[in-house]
Amino acid sequence: MTMQAVEREASMANLVGSMEKIASNALAIKEAVETVCVNKNECVDIGRRVMRIRALLTHLQGMEMMTIKEPAMVAYMLGALQVILSRTRKLVMECQQRSVVRSFVGARDLCKQLRDVKQEMSDHIMDGVFAANASPSDPRTCHPGKAPKFHH
Question: Could you say which of 16, 25, 40, 61 is the most buried, measured as most Cβ atoms within 10 Å of its Cβ?
Answer without folding.
Answer: 25
